[in-house]
Amino acid sequence: MTIIKSAALAALTILIPSIAFAAGGNLEPNDPVGITFWLISIAMVAATVFFLMESLRVSGKWRTSLIVGGLVTLVAAVHYFYMRDVWVSTGQSPTVFRYVDWLITVPLQMIEFYLILAACTAVAMGVFWRLLVGTVIMLLGGYLGEAGFINATVGFVIGMAGWAYILYEIFAGEAGKVAADEAPESVKSAFSLMRWIVTIGWAIYPLGYFFGYLAGGVDDNSLNLIYNVADVVNKIGFCLAIWAAATSESEAKA
């Protein structure tokens, strides 16, 4: 318990300088994108504290899942403060910061599929590694294409292949089968919501990429607004599904 409390305090210690740094920019009241950067960064801070503190009251086997959820929102919060400052100062898309955020948080989210299954039943480490590999492929292709290191179409295809690999694993692969056959109802419900977030919520990103970099129909303002709103659902909503399963299972056995 003491370790977790210390982790929560450490998280706030990391966030406070980021908040102070970001607060130096001039946020215009007619800048909806900048406002979403600010609102989401604060929401991520609140979510971090919530998940870390809630990890104190669930049973031991669920604590790792909630702590990882807190790390997801912690990393996102720090990056959102910096992305807001880049946007307010330059008016340009903070592509590098966004992908650095995703390269850390998205693999952690994929690990959560393994962790919630491992909390209630035996699951092979292959699930962990397959989800991790699919995530790296998806993000690497997207970043290289969006940053202009490779052809945008090639990057899009690579990213979509990684995403399809993840979807196969959580729906028809070993992870999906273990969830359907061996997990309790609360975990099944959380697993189902999480994979639909990965399916529907994550679809916003390739759509934004396609219209922004291939079709040329979305400007930076719209693209960043779409990405920002998507991150709220796909990070905080995703971790709330895990919290719901953890609290339900812990209270049932209390």
Give structural notes.
The structure is a single chain. The protein has one domain (2-252): Rhopdopsin 7-helix transmembrane proteins, CATH 1.20.1070.10. The protein has 10 helices and no strands. 83% of the residues lie in helices and 0% in strands.
DSSP helical segment count: 10
Uncertain segments are none
Judged by helices, strands and strand pairing, the structural class is: mainly alpha
Report the CATH architecture: Up-down Bundle
Q: What would you call the shape?
A: globular
Report, as a whole number of angstroms, the end-to-end distance: 18 Å
Mean pLDDT: 85
Radius of gyration, in Å, reads: 18 Å
Q: What is the strand tally?
A: 0
**Helix content estimate:** over 70%
Annotation keywords:
254 residues, mainly alpha, Rhopdopsin 7-helix transmembrane proteins
Topology:
Layout: H1 2-22, H2 32-54, H3 60-90, H4 95-118, H5 125-146, H6 152-171, H7 174-182, H8 185-201, H9 204-214, H10 220-252
